[in-house]
Design a protein that fits this description.
- The strands form seven sheets. Strands 12, 13, 15, 16 and 17 form a five-stranded antiparallel β-sheet that branches. This protein has a five-stranded mixed β-sheet with strand order 19-25-24-21-22, with no helix packed on it. A four-stranded mixed β-sheet has the order 4-9-8-6, with no helix packed on it.
- It contains no helices and 25 strands.
- About 5% of the residues have low confidence.
- It is mainly beta.
- It starts with a strand and ends with a strand.
């Protein structure tokens, strides 16, 4: 018997004997030599699929019929069959992100309030900015989001503020960058800016601030740590304690005096923390170590 198998644009013909043995066979395909062009926004991905059914050897090493790629620059891809009879070619070109960043700067106000400022020349179907931060200019983490004007042909000015607390324990410099995201989820990164921050040292306030809080002793054992006002008899304060990662672990409003009083619950684990005390419009930070 002769058996014909058809799948998509592939036909397989087989000569089969009475006992089921295939003595001869051949394959025919049509419209499978193909060249395709794609244009995507940088950061997006595109699916490339071979036009034929068979075995696949892609120029990037893949062996599946389709691959999904997100190149960082204009890139050409090829896929061939095992016998090198069929060739599909794909050209992926990147469109520029629909925004032009013309300025980016970062500064510290002297109290570790970091302000980033930037401006764009135009925006077309643009979505938002994501602010990212790093201690080493290599490993960045998300800090915040700033919505854009979506569509604008004139200069747009933006700013973003961050009060640096825990980060300043270890680093004198922080690095910031913007991830610019379009409405179709394309993305592109800005250059990196460096901002100097003041290290929060045990019992020492960043330059320019009068010392008005003391933590006693420091380091201290659990249940044996006290706080007192210096240069003032009494004040109502909002107290927040942050862990080493900058996460708040305890917050309370309390009356402080120039006499040392305990201020931490006993269930807080040992480790290094930053105490932030808000006295009216004045903000004071202290680093302290809690022992077992």
């Amino acid at each position: 018997a002769m058996m014909l198998e058809v799948e998509g644009k592939r036909l397989d013909a087989k000569w089969i004997t009475e006992d089921g043995e295939i003595l001869d066979q051949f394959t025919m395909m049509k419209d499978i030599d193909r060249q395709e062009n794609f244009q995507i926004v940088k950061g997006n991905s595109v699916k490339l699929e071979a036009a034929y059914i068979g075995e696949y050897h892609w120029s990037n090493g893949a062996t599946t019929r389709s691959i999904t790629v997100s190149p960082a620059e204009d890139t050409d891809y090829q896929v061939r069959d095992t016998h090198n009879c069929i060739l599909n070619e794909f050209s992926v070109k990147l469109n520029p992100l629909p925004v032009k960043l013309i300025a980016l700067s970062g500064a510290n106000d002297g109290k570790n309030l970091v302000t980033l400022k930037w401006s764009t020349a135009f925006e077309n179907n643009f979505s938002h900015f994501e602010v990212e931060k790093s201690p080493d200019a290599i490993n960045f983490t998300y800090v915040g989001k700033v919505e854009s004007n979506k569509n604008s042909q004139t200069t747009s000015i933006y700013n973003f503020n961050e009060q640096v607390i825990a980060d300043a324990i270890y680093y004198n410099d922080l690095y910031y960058r913007l991830k610019m995201v379009s409405l179709d989820d394309g993305e592109e990164y800005s250059r990196i800016v460096r901002v100097n921050v003041y290290e929060i040292i045990l019992g020492v306030e960043p330059p320019g601030n009068e010392t008005t809080i003391e933590i006693l002793p420091n380091p201290a054992s659990k249940g044996q740590i006290f706080i007192r006002l210096v240069g003032q008899k009494r004040a109502t304060a909002s107290i927040t304690v942050y862990d080493i990662s900058g996460n708040p672990v305890w917050n309370q409003n309390m009356q402080l005096t120039n006499h040392a009083i305990p201020f931490l619950p006993k269930n807080i684990a040992s480790g290094t923390y930053v105490l932030n005390v808000q006295l009216g419009s004045k903000s004071i930070s202290r680093k302290f170590v809690l022992l077992e």
